[in-house]
Write a structure and sequence with these properties.
Rossmann fold; 16 strands; alpha+beta; about 425 residues; single chain; about 40% helix; BirA Bifunctional Protein, domain 2
């Protein structure tokens, strides 16, 4: 007996009953993005590995531990995309979009791939709603992006969310902070995990994002970047706070937010839920003013966020937020005898082409079994076609909720008119 094949660990099948929830969430996300002036972008699932080494940072957990990387038949190092921002930045540069209308604002809904321990809301293949903006240094743009996240969560009915913000400064003020952080961490370097010990010289801020319990405890007492901001970064951060307050968005300053990717600068933020356990961040992002330049493009500011679809669904389920019901089949046409088979098929096909959801039996069921099947489909109306209906040229459409019947001609136009 052949061994059954199952989906790889950390992946998830979205079955039709669950896909309805995904479609609803995606519809809300697309509508919200459009209201904020963001247009959709799509990009490849695979990229050259160098894109993420340069863009995400080779001292991050994503690059060091989590990427699915392989050599293709041409000897090129290829990686399944672990996050969307670097791909959008690469596309922005490659297609010369910096020469167009700025700011450039886009969104995407796409799968990402990371090799990490599967847990609630964190899969090896997960799906992300992301937005990116290139070409604006203004704190107004920071507030707009945070406002977009606040709006789509509200539209989904998710209200018990805490907004955490921080500033991790720019390369100018970060030099002083790195020196203070390195001095603090060096005093306890014997306690750091092997990965963090290697980061101490090259990028000590990555230690603050380590998942090790020991490193987390050490990081808890580390100096805060927000205390080392230069004048420009401090003015920017204060302005972001002012705009959020004016917009009615409650927030708290959280100096522990550094985000897990190297490209972030200045404003970083997270929307945190208490309803999905330890993995409570449902949306996170910030500014990355040096990313485009790092990838070979012009000096171009940018910012954005990402939000996992699976986590959004977990939060909604935990809060008991209802999802819209799937639209039922409008009409089921049962075939009473072989003589009516072709007529039933033609009617079903014609009605479908006219945009009316229609079903029939294709499993050679008896008339009684067809009626049971029609009930399982949730069809609003049921009609039976047999010899009598063929000779008389009309049928009855039975409303399955009320039992009422509508008589109409045995043709697609009359049936469509009766259903509408």
């Amino acid at each position: 007996m052949a061994v059954t094949i199952q989906a790889p660990k950390g992946t998830h099948d979205v079955l039709p009953a669950e896909a309805v929830k995904w479609q609803y969430i995606e519809k809300v996300l697309r509508g919200c993005a459009a209201d904020f002036g963001f247009r959709e972008i799509r990009f490849p699932t695979i990229e050259h590995t160098e894109l993420f080494q340069r863009g995400v940072g080779d001292t991050t957990d994503v690059v060091q531990k989590e990427m699915y990387t392989f050599e293709d038949k041409g000897g090129r190092s290829i990686t399944l995309r672990p996050e969307g921002t670097a791909s959008v930045a690469r596309s922005f540069i490659e297609h010369g979009l910096a020469g167009g209308t700025l700011p450039f604002k886009c969104f995407y809904i796409a799968p990402n791939f990371r090799y990490e321990k599967p847990q609630a809301g964190r899969l090896r293949e997960h799906h992300q709603f992301g937005v990116e903006v290139f070409g604006s240094k203004s704190p107004v743009q920071d507030a707009e992006v945070i406002g977009l996240a606040d709006t789509f969560l509200s539209r989904l009915g998710i209200h018990n969310i805490r907004v955490h913000i921080n500033s991790i400064g720019c390369p100018v003020c970060r030099r002083e902070y790195h020196a203070a952080l390195k001095e603090y961490l060096s005093e306890r370097k014997d306690e750091l995990c092997g990965t963090c010990l290697s980061r101490l010289e090259k990028n000590p801020m990555r230690i603050l994002d380590c998942k090790s319990d020991i490193c987390k405890a050490i990081a808890a007492g580390a100096p805060h970047c927000v205390d080392y901001l230069c004048d420009e970064c401090r003015v920017h951060f204060n302005a972001v706070q002012s705009y959020l307050t004016a917009m009615g968005i409650d927030f708290e300053i959280d100096p522990n937010i550094v985000r897990g990717l190297d490209y972030y600068t200045k404003t970083v933020f997270e929307f945190v839920s208490e309803n999905i356990g330890a993995q409570g961040t449902v949306c996170g992002g910030g500014r990355y003013d040096g990313l485009v330049r790092e990838l070979g493009g012009p000096d171009m500011p940018g910012l954005g966020f990402g939000s996992g679809i699976e986590r959004l669904m977990m939060v909604m389920d935990s809060l008991g937020i209802p999802f819209p019901e799937e639209e039922p089949v409008k009409l089921f046409i049962a075939c009473a005898d072989a003589a009516a088979d072709e007529t039933v098929q033609v009617l079903v096909h014609t009605l479908r082409k006219a945009g009316i959801a229609c079903e029939r039996d294709t499993a050679a069921r008896s008339l009684k079994a067809q009626m049971k099947y029609a009930d399982k489909t949730g069809a609003r109306y049921v009609a039976v076609i047999g010899g009598n209906e063929l000779s008389e040229g009309h049928i009855e459409l039975k409303n399955m909720s009320t039992g009422d019947k509508i008589s109409c001609g045995l043709n697609a136009d009359d049936i469509a008119a009766a259903l509408n």
